[in-house]
Specification:
519 residues; 39% helix; 2 domains; ten-stranded mixed β-sheet; alpha+beta; Endonuclease, Chain A; nine-stranded mixed β-sheet
Length: 519
């Protein structure tokens, strides 16, 4: 019996390995292309010429904290694009916001604008036809980064290609005419733009003009021309028929027509930001800046090949902090080294404040398991920890989403503020998956106005939006307490707020597993 069981297991494993070895296409053309450099004569190139001349070497910035504004910025820029649009996302859904955005890309392509769309393959299962139909537009090219083989199941490949398909392109950038760009934490989907009734991500992007836009274009070109970027037509083999393409476009047109009265298209028509984009009157804050990003080769090499990594480029900003460090990170797993570093900062007089998700607001519970084990060490060292208070009262829900309200709020902002002088905004979480496995991008900008504004927001609002954690030692044993507002009244919890026993038990069990490097 035992021998038969072993034989069956061996046969199953062999089948998995055989099916998992399905290779990706080879010997195909991947024409190289690059960002246009002669775009100073475009609308955006000419509009801010005087401001650029008055701020030599600097870039202009506008924060996009509101989901509606974040959509309007992207769609509005696509609407006025003249030469090129470069789009790079980790997740690209097929929902309201993503369809409205895609419609703007198609309309730009119809005007003769070159559109390059680079998407990680994590979110595209079953959607090859739509991507291929988009790619068939004469002015649109779609590439898929680090794709799964289409010859076997993804689940099988997660086993047989562990360490390959588990490393993803997490970058998020959107650049128009090589003149203006948007970086930040948002993927392309409803939940990132306040359009999901069940989940509302609190997120942050920054729109930028000047040298930063050209630096983002340089990064995009590296990924676009990488050996890991596969033309979608190569992956699917058989191209869509003209009839299939026509049906796809017709369905898109019908969908968009039905959304004419939606908040998103109304804002695109007449919001202050939309008008400012059309009239080239956006007010930017100017400052020195540098774009930091992982090289696409990071995914191909061992973890110790840090010359391809973003972290060494941003580490000096952390090490150089003198007075205050603020961290916004939805997925925060500092590890032993990170915990020791933050403790050292605190012990030499730096005020360290961290806002991350609570167990109840975290949409990836296993990541919380990796973070929770470091809370006491951080609190002992004087680091101030805050966890998002997800519970909104009826009035707040109504104001945010309408009568029914959003049932869950979650932090998704990835930003660091250094000494109220410099700010990082990008796609980087402070966890092993972002730092070691995936690729990321962001910008470090030097602006006292923006940094102070974010710091002041933290000072004035943190008590309303988050729980403050305290390490209580009165009973002779260390115990974490959570202090925060519940329906407008201060309340203290001695367990993770708004969670049940089994939820906490499951997270506690997962924290014992040796999986931190994968979080």
């Amino acid at each position: 019996m035992l021998r038969n069981t072993r034989m069956i297991l061996a046969a199953v494993l062999s089948l998995l390995l055989i099916s998992g070895c399905a290779t990706l296409p080879k010997d195909f053309e991947r024409p190289a292309s690059h960002a246009f450099t002669d775009t100073d004569d475009t609308s955006f190139g000419k509009a801010f010429h005087a401001e650029k001349a008055a701020n030599p070497g600097q870039s202009g910035f506008l924060l996009l904290g509101n989901g509606l504004d974040a959509f309007v910025a992207r769609a509005g820029l696509a609407h006025v694009a003249e030469r090129s649009i470069d789009v790079q996302y980790y997740l690209y859904h097929s929902d309201l916001v993503a369809r409205l955005f895609t419609d703007q890309l198609l309309k730009a392509a119809d005007r003769g604008v070159r559109v390059r769309l680079l998407v990680d393959d994590m979110d595209l299962e079953g959607r090859d036809l739509g991507a291929a139909a988009l790619d068939r537009h004469p002015n649109v090219e779609v590439r898929i980064f680090n794709p799964f083989s289409r010859k076997t199941s993804r689940i099988t490949q997660f086993v047989t290609r562990m360490g390959s398909v588990t490393r993803r392109m997490h970058n998020k950038s959107f650049t128009v005419d090589n003149q203006v760009t948007i970086l930040g934490g948002r993927n392309m989907g409803n939940e990132y733009f306040d359009a999901d009734p069940d989940l509302a991500f609190s997120d942050l992007d920054v729109m930028a003009i000047g040298p930063v836009a050209q630096e983002v274009s340089t990064a995009f070109d590296l990924y676009w021309n990488s050996e890991l970027a596969y033309p979608v037509a190569v992956l699917i083999g058989k191209p869509p028929t003209p009839e299939e393409i026509e049906r796809k476009r017709q369905k898109m047109n019908e969908f968009v027509a039905k959304q004419a009265d939606s908040d998103y298209l109304q804002a695109l028509h007449d919001s202050n930001l939309a008008n400012a984009i059309r009239q080239n009157s956006v007010r930017f804050v100017w400052g020195e800046a540098v774009v930091v990003y992982d090289q696409p080769e990071k995914i191909l090499h061992d973890f110790d090949k840090t010359e391809y990594h973003l972290l060494p480029k941003i580490a000096p900003y952390f090490k150089g902090v003198q007075e205050e460090l603020m961290i916004f990170s939805p997925y925060f797993v500092p590890g032993k080294e990170g915990t020791a570093f933050l403790a050292q900062l605190s012990q030499r007089g730096v005020r360290v404040r961290i806002l991350t998700n609570s167990l109840s607001s975290n949409d990836v519970g296993i990541v919380h398991a990796g973070y929770a084990k470091y809370r006491k060490d951080l609190l002992r060292a004087g680091v101030e920890l805050y966890e998002l208070n997800k519970k909104m009262n009826r009035k707040e829900r109504k104001e945010k989403k309408g009568e029914e309200g959003s049932s869950k709020a979650s932090l998704h902002t990835k930003s660091f503020v250094f000494d109220r002088n410099k700010v990082f905004i990008g796609s980087l979480n402070l966890d092993p998956r972002a730092v070691v496995h995936n690729t990321e991008i962001g910008v470090v900008l030097e602006s006292t106005e923006i940094a102070t504004g974010m710091s002041d927001w933290f000072d004035q609002n943190i008590g309303q939006v988050a729980f403050r954690l305290e390490l209580n030692k009165e009973s002779g044993t260390e115990k974490i307490l959570w202090h925060g507002l519940v329906y407008g009244k201060q309340q203290t919890f001695d367990v993770d707020p708004y969670t049940g026993f089994w939820r906490r038990f499951g997270i506690g069990f997962m924290s014992l597993l040796p999986i931190e490097s994968q979080l």
